[in-house]
Amino acid sequence: MKRELTKILNLPEVIVKAKKEIEESLVLEVESQSKTAFCPRCQKVSHRLHQNHWHLIKDLPWGEKEVFLRINRRQFKCDYCSKPFSEELNFVEKKQKYTKRYARFVTQEVVNSDLLSVAKRHNLTEDQVVSMIN
């Protein structure tokens, strides 16, 4: 089941570890397949896990269900410069609560509709929609 969900999710280097359905939402616990991360300061590979930080990130809906990814954005400590840093996730911008592809999806809907109806359809505020299209 998890292998099929990983294929359906279609995010590179991400695997689905668990799923939970809550009312009209689907929460997928996902994990990066990589066991290392590159330090943004010195560009060296780090293997040393420092902390775990769990985030809930909104992704593309599946049919009528909202989809949220429960992702561990791990914090590593660089072996060379000894500075802690959070791993980069190529499918979500830093400090965002939604995937890049979800932002593109919402932006396309705004192009074909209006801001208020898109916000209502996705349980978002108009300000959240505006931040996605900018």
UniProtKB/TrEMBL annotation:
List the transmembrane segments.
Answer: none
Span of the secretion signal? none
Lineage, top-rank taxon, reads: Bacteria
**Which Pfam family, an example, fits this chain?**
Zn_ribbon_ISL3
Q: Which InterPro entries match?
A: Transpos_ISL3 (IPR047951), Transposase_HTH (IPR032877), Transposase_Znf (IPR029261)
Where are the annotated coiled coils located?
A: none
Q: Which residues form the Transposase IS204/IS1001/IS1096/IS1165 zinc-finger domain?
A: 36-81
Q: Which residues form the Transposase IS204/IS1001/IS1096/IS1165 helix-turn-helix domain?
A: 87-134
Record's PANTHER family? TRANSPOSASE FOR INSERTION SEQUENCE ELEMENT IS1557 (PTHR33498:SF1)
Q: What is this protein called?
A: Transposase
- Could you tell me which species this protein originates from? Aphanothece sacrum FPU1
